[in-house]
């Protein structure tokens, strides 16, 4: 018998976090997240997402062992199909057993039906602005920082529960030292158009810089699938989180006639520094991580956020912004030893962004799937 219980205590949350660590202990490309980061991300006390989202975590148990987990949540700010009350599932991780998956999804779907949801999408860990989709292609390389890595069997087990593809999202990789196409290189060589300036972030004005990022995100992505928007509390939380890992020369703003029009953020891939810590910073994990970050070159980076205000999307100067911004992080990244840059997440139907990335010689190297089901 598979028993599914709602997570209600700190001890149960600890077990919930550890489920994938056990499942993928022998997976060479899996990197366990830091436990303290997961605790904060999944706690209403520290993650402002829960100010506008309901949630419930579930654990599956059999013969006294934790054999799986899932979350059910409702993000009241998310925008998916108009007029269709949508719930989300996420955090899915379970042993390769159809009974376990069936029990987990039954619990999550029952919770969502009780709250009048007519459709469920996922996985989202836990929102459109965090980890999106299930890895279905690209198992042959480790994930970058704050990216998931799922067991190969999970997609099949989800589909057995009646779920079908709703949307694919891609991670693009730019290799060989960020080499661009000849056409892009020639255009960049002409210099900036009149009225355009670029600058990197100023840490002494971090609050201001984060507000600019939030303003552009809320404008640029408001009509996208899922409708990502940052509240004031989430903006503040973003600033506090980025302040720990931000390299000012890896955050660039593109201004048109003095107005912030676009931005890009490149984060160092910290996974290489935490790859063997098994999620723990104590007793010696923190020392190892800091030593590696200081003494070892950062070879990989990830662009988790990039945006252009809609009013400039069809402006000649605005259309140049993504290329100029990527060129800036390329130059600064190479100075610190960066060899590879990832751009994620990219919706499969965001053809404008995909064409830009292909012009930058980037290629799809990981595919993540969002599944859907009518309730």
Which properties best describe this structure?
Aminopeptidase, 13-stranded mixed beta sheet, two-stranded antiparallel ribbon, globular
Q: Would you write up a description of this structure?
A:
The protein is α+β, with helices and mostly antiparallel strands and 375 residues long. It has two domains: 3-168, Aminopeptidase; 174-368, 3-Layer(aba) Sandwich (Aminopeptidase), CATH 3.40.630. 33% of the residues lie in helices and 29% in strands. The protein has helices at residues 10-23, 35-41, 98-113, 154-160, 182-189, 206-220, 232-245, 271-274, 285-295, 316-335, 351-359; strands at 3-6, 53-62, 65-75, 86-94, 119-122, 124-125, 131-132, 134-137, 164-174, 196-200, 251-256, 259-268, 300-308, 340-347, 363-374. Strands 1, 2, 3, 4, 5, 8, 9, 10, 11, 12, 13, 14 and 15 form a 13-stranded mixed sheet that branches. The protein has a two-stranded antiparallel sheet with strand order 6-7. The radius of gyration is 21 Å and the shape is globular. The protein starts with a strand and ends with a strand. The model has no long low-confidence stretch (mean pLDDT 90).
Spatial shape: globular
Low-pLDDT stretches: none
Overall mean pLDDT: 90
Order of helices and strands: EHHEEEHEEEEHEHEHHEEHHEHEHE
Kindly name the structural category.
alpha+beta
| CATH homologous superfamily annotation of the largest domain | Gcn5-related N-acetyltransferase (GNAT)
CATH class of the largest domain: Alpha Beta
Terminal CA distance reads 25 Å
Please report the number of helical segments.
Answer: 11
Domain module tally: 2
Largest sheet: 13 strands, mixed
Tell me what the CATH architecture of the largest domain is. Answer: 3-Layer(aba) Sandwich
CATH topology of the largest domain: Aminopeptidase
Number of strands: 15
- How much helix is in the residues? 25-40%
């Amino acid at each position: 018998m598979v028993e599914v219980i709602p997570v209600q205590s700190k001890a149960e949350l600890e077990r919930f976090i550890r489920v994938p660590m056990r499942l993928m202990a022998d997976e060479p490309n899996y990197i366990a997240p830091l436990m303290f980061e997961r605790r904060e991300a999944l706690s209403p006390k520290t993650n402002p997402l829960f100010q506008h989202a309901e949630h419930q975590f579930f654990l599956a148990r059999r013969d006294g062992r934790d054999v799986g987990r899932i979350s059910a949540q409702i993000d009241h700010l998310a925008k998916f199909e108009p007029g269709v009350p949508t719930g989300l599932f996420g955090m899915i991780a379970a042993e390769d057993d159809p009974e376990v998956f069936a029990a987990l999804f039954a619990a999550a779907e029952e919770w969502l039906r009780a709250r009048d949801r007519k459709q469920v999408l996922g996985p989202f860990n836990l929102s459109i602005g965090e980890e999106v989709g299930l890895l279905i292609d690209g198992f042959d390389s480790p994930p970058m920082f704050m990216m998931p890595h799922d067991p190969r069997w999970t997609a099949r087990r989800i589909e057995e529960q009646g779920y079908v593809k709703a949307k694919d999202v891609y991670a693009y990789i730019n290799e060989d030292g960020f080499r661009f196409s000849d056409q892009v290189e020639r255009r960049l060589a002409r210099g900036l158009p009149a009225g355009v300036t670029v600058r990197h972030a100023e840490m002494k004005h971090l609050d201001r810089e984060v507000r600019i990022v939030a303003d552009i995100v809320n404008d640029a992505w408001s009509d996208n699938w899922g409708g990502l928007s940052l509240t004031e509390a989430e903006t503040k939380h973003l600033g506090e989180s980025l302040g720990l890992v931000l390299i000012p020369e890896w955050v660039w703003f593109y201004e048109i006639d003095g107005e912030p029009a676009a931005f890009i953020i490149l984060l160092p891939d910290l996974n290489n520094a935490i790859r063997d810590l098994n999620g723990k910073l104590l007793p010696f994990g923190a020392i190892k991580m800091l030593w590696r970050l200081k003494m070892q070159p950062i070879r990989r980076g990830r662009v988790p956020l990039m945006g252009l205000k809609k009013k400039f999307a069809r402006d000649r100067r605005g259309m140049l912004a993504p290329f100029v911004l990527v060129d800036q992080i390329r130059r600064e990244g190479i100075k610190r030893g960066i060899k590879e840059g990832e751009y994620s997440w990219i919706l499969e139907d965001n053809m404008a962004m995909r064409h830009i990335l292909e012009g930058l010689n980037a290629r799809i190297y990981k595919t993540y799937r969002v599944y859907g089901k009518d309730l």
